[in-house]
Records
---
Amino acid sequence: MSKPIVETENLVKVYKHGKIEVHALRGITVKMPNGKIIGLVGPSGSGKTTLLNIIGGLDMPTKGKIYVDGIDLTKLSEKRLAEYRLNKIGFVFQFLNLIPVLTALENIEVPMILAKIPKEERRKRAIELLKMVGLEDRMNHKPDEMSGGEQQRVAIARALANNPSIVLADEPTGNVDTDTTIKIMEIIVKLNRSLGKTFIIATHDPIVKERCEKIYNIRDGKLVGEEA
């Protein structure tokens, strides 16, 4: 069996709002397999987005350990964490965060600019990624000239720009209809198979869950079950 891509030990996250403590994660221990489509499934407020943010290095646990690809995230400096987020992780946010004044091609180039990839190389990579998600004919369109599903595909292509080990997606189908959800998941399955990337998706959508190869059910900040 291959080494897990994500491993957590008794992961706890407590947020403080004045004197009120909110326990977002309550001791989660998991080993997530490499190269699979993984679902973090649970209702809103269950802790799945918090877990996703900790895996992505956007947040730190209050207690416990998190290893991603063998790296202990709790030991990284701010500078190393920023490098980790840029090179190891691709993010697909629920509200996409595409830059409205940039074209699809330019949006995909943004992470590569941050990674100091030369212009010619990043343009070539952005075009390749647009082809992979079936949008090469929309490369010069801005987000408001595309449908919700097309914007989501641009966001997925952008997440792959710096060739990360893991793509994290937070409710990637939360704002689209059933047909578009099916198309987006078909693209994710295709990319997972062709590129061997691990996709970790926070969702409560049964269509998304159906296409995940490994599922972790989360409720009230606890792991309440696993499905292969």
Note: The mean pLDDT is 93.
---
Amino acid sequence: MAGPLDVLPVRSGEREETTGSVPHIQLTAEPVPEVDAELRRRAYLLPGVIDQESRLSLPGARSLWLSDDVEIDRPDVLQSGREFGHIHPDGSMHVWLPVERASEVDESKWGELHPWVTQEGFWDGVVMVYTPESPEELEISLRLIVDAYNFVTGSDLDAAAVC
């Protein structure tokens, strides 16, 4: 697994179809049960990340919520409490990343920028990561969750070592 500063490979195939507006959801997602279960299991192995209902997304979305004992280095980018991302019921997710990394996710077709990134007061690095459908895509999705965790907390976790 590559580290957080490594360049993302270009995702094969076409972009996924999404609403392109809010609610920002993927329209054609077909989660693979084993991949989806592993995404969720491993995402919540990160230190201090709590699985709870999202405060920012549609019903059924699960928050990537930081427990009170985890220091937040970038509170300015968060929208609600300690949520630095959430996983939608279909396995796609929104995560808060550095703007450059979010742009890279968009350009390499692993996801797309949130429609509100140009609005005043909304972090420009919010990105939707498409539903992972294979073990290889799962690794990229997990790496991006760790990138978001590291960005918000100021940590330097290695995705391969923690999840």
Note: Strands lie at 49-53, 62-66, 83-87, 93-96, 111-113, 126-129.
---
Amino acid sequence: MVHERRVVVTGLGLVTPLGIGVEASWKAALEGTSGIGPITQFDASSLPVRIAGEVKGFDPSPYIEAKEIKKMDRFIHLALAAATMAMEDSGFAVTEENAERVGVIVGAGMGGLPAIEQYHKAFLEKGYRRISPFFIPMLIINLASGNISIKFGAKGPNSAAVTACATGSHSIGDAFRLIQRGDADAMIAGGTESVITPLGIGGFAVMKALSTRNEEPGKASRPFDLERDGFIMGEGAGVVLLESLESARSRNAKIYAEIVGYGMSCDAYHITTPAPEGEGAARCMKAALKDAGIGPEQIHYINAHGTSTKYGDELETAAIKKVFGEHAYSLCVSSTKSMTGHLLGAAGGVEAIFSILGIRDSIIPPTINLEKPDPECDLDYAPNRAKKRDIEYALSNSFGFGGTNACLVFRKYRGI
């Protein structure tokens, strides 16, 4: 059996509808700020959904050379920004000596949809010569990882998870495994997404998945609330730097938290609806706890998938009760999607970071807009206000279309 190495988080990077940068996003989350507003990236007036969680005022130029910007779609811009923040935050340097031991796993759920729409239109109107020669690398999901590796010279394992809304969590979990078993010493990992486009919004709208509370965008994302009417699409990126404990200690790095558990499962039930009683989600949480070597009663906080959909919220709550029993009523659950919207492939990366920051600051971010609780959702969701609580272990849940599930367990690092 391979000796499993301990893995810690030493760098964080966030670009969200709440702000650009980790502390800006975290401060807004703790204040219960909504990042949801009218769509400005295209004319949504003909659509039933005209609101989203856009990243406002984002400029890629501090993170990407000017001549390279036009070769990438926005999801890659956001990924590079978040990865740059994480690397700068960590103080980790990729060198000739360690490059082959540093890897990247940053995924997306849908990739370069804006580029597809733009160049399909150009092709129909003016022919194939109007397609950019960079069109294919603009849209391919693994080019987020590819461009990050090129920027930092990371020559180790390079991959991209593509598991819908579980992408960010699978990326971090897979990176954790690579370091744990000795295939890398450091990994840049997380998720990114930017598909606030006519097809992106229109596609989810015809599924009746999105909230149509267009007149009250700040109140539209309301997980666990009886009057919720669907999720809100968001965009952004959440990227962490993971390192082996030995690597972090050798350079006296700041350690945010330790990652100790990773669970994966599939519902094998339906393409979009969770399995009855949240059975697949429950198995995933149990797998993460088992991997962490802890009992359910040791978890203090769950960052829920909590999308603000009827079945999603109710079945996740049922799954938590199934796994945690009576302790479900003692721990605290919250959905930061109430503020960011649902960042699809980026959600798991962003929410892992919120979980880590909760551990760091002994505070639980709120679930805003929880005004009339759904009777089926009867746990402590930190309604409307952040809650001070010492967190030893936090669990971050991500569940995606296709029934794919990922759960991560983080632990407060005690220096031992």
Note: The first helix runs from residue 22 to 30.
---
Amino acid sequence: MQRNHARHLRARLRQAAFTHAPLWVTRGRAARSKSVQAIHLARHDVPLEHLPPELDGMRVTHLSDLHVGPVLAPKDLPRIVALANQLDGDLVAVTGDFVDLSLTVLEPVIHALQQLRAPLGVWLVPGNHDYLDDGPELIRRFQKAGLNLLLNRAESIKARGAPVLVAGVDFPHKKKQLGSHLVRAFHRAPRRPESALRLLLSHHPDAFDWAGRHDVDLTLSGHTHGGQLVLARTGGKRGSIGLGSLGFKYPHGLYRRDRHFLYVTSGVGSWFPLRVQCPAEIASLTLRRRAA
């Protein structure tokens, strides 16, 4: 898919209004503020019905939405990699939006991703911002660098002797594409009991609406940034009142439907240089065995 020039122009206008303008007014201080720079290490247990005994306690490190560009600069990447690696995950999932708008930062982004460490590998899917400049070039460079980019496909691996299926889907530029992306990802995938644990990476969290049809235990997503601005925390279905709850069905946190789970991270980077009650985060998800 080549660059959509209209989409790219709209993105540049949004960046000028919501990113460059605040940075210019504050002389760059907004990007250096604690609300933007602080990264929370979020830890959650996920109780899974189909988890084999061997995988009880397996940890997944989840990060997303680096948006490397005007707010989160390449010089910030070593700190982020160090934080992710100190979580000591068995598997690392990175769910898209590696760059904010321009591929000029791609070399340090790739270098940083290559420094992430996990025994079961580092797995990635692209986000919508990764297509704003030149999506095919980003994909080509990632593949040339040997990164595990999952584009509507699934890979079978072994963890502690137990089978694990890791699937990933491309970003849907039209919502109706999500379902077909999942069909493509899983059409050759082994079914249970051959794959005892099934993970799905999708930048857009609405993939959760189709994940149950493919027996996915845990879906990992980003895209929402948690809204970045949260006015109040609630105990309701969406968990908060703010920009995220206004714009997204699954704005942030852990969601459950029957025996299927979704985790939506608030992201590492920021689209605009302000966060309120919604810190940037790297998540550590510990999988726990739950009785059927």
Note: The chain has a mean pLDDT of 90.
